[in-house]
């Protein structure tokens, strides 16, 4: 029995097809989000990669910011539930989830049954999200992919005093004009994101195992800064951007079983 | 007896010389803030304009973000106290002060004795400050001076949904590319600032007379948007950027009288 989870975020759309609720058949991701053709392209992607037709998929759950705009979904489930489900499946025993996406950040405290206990999120402020890193990479005339490697070369531990993306941008410009090396600035940028997001995580609750997901989990510099800020190791699942879609596919399978048992 | 008030802000430094606590002799303003030569230049300015020497000034009060860095000051007094003093002097009966500066916004509830009763301020987020307008003017390839006149030409009442400067910037770019006219976008920008700042004002308390000060008070579009948002007329004193320095000069005179009476 095949189920599909689709996660329609603000900057990317992700899909996962699962067999019998325990085998990932295929995954797809396109870098366009809600309000675009992203969901159709992801659907086409997972179907062609798996050789399945739409009629083979027995249940579809949509999640993410744009979840209400995908007409083929049987059900919409919140990102928080889907992320919790997906991460708990990949990393049993997870206690704290830190998810930093392109335009938001969320942190979830998970109980020992793998259920969400509390959460804290930032959806309104660019600080502490992927967007903050995009802006900073722009000012530094580099790309976000380079940031992790750059901060590894830092030799000076300094801080950016402004949390706000706009004010931090001015600070970075003045650091550059004062001749501070880019690696040191990037380290400070990563610390700024870490501080902001760990503040959020502490509001939800922090204890090991800490798992990080979302696009920014691919930035090793931010991961290191979070580990330092929390003084705890951070686990990154493979494909950290797919956990929402995976959780949606897992919840689709559970819904299918439930529907069967109630028929 | 001459007193000097100097207001060292983040983006501008202002000075006022007062005779006998009731006559403004001269004012000066330079568009550089704390951490620069701004305070020296303002001092030179007010002295040369008035033909006075430093020794003629009997008491100097410094206020503003950089107030602790001006060595000639006899006393440092908070911006909130100085603004309240200066505005109450210029507009007797003021009840609510809305001050929007280059990088911050503060709102003060004044009681019927002209004393601060409560306040609310934003010093950390660029939204709802002059910086927000600078960023938006940049995206629209215009200058902040033009914004008031532009929004007066609007023919469509629309909103920007993001409060965050960074996300609002993206929204404006997409409005532009969708062919929305600049005057309509500027109106929406002014409404965004007004909403943000009036939220702050409501936390402090709003009742007539409402007085607006700070650099952004010179933007007629923001003033109109605040009047609409509060459904109250807004009074702008002449030289709305000088009220902090004026209040400092007034408090300097009070300090002088007190010192005399205790001698
Ligand atoms: S603090 Fe800066 S980044 Fe955050 S909402 Fe305000 S303007 Fe946006």
From TrEMBL, chains A, B:
Record's subunit section: Homodimer.
Residues annotated as domain ATPase BadF/BadG/BcrA/BcrD type: 4-252
Cofactor or coenzyme needed: [4Fe-4S] cluster
Keyword terms of this UniProt record: Iron, Iron-sulfur, Metal-binding
Top-level taxon of the source organism: Bacteria
Pfam family name, one: BcrAD_BadFG
Cytoplasm listed as a keyword: no
SUPFAM superfamilies membership: Actin-like ATPase domain (SSF53067)
Signal peptide range in chain numbering: none
Any one Gene Ontology molecular-function term assigned to this protein's record: metal ion binding
UniProt-recorded name of the protein: 2-hydroxyglutaryl-CoA dehydratase
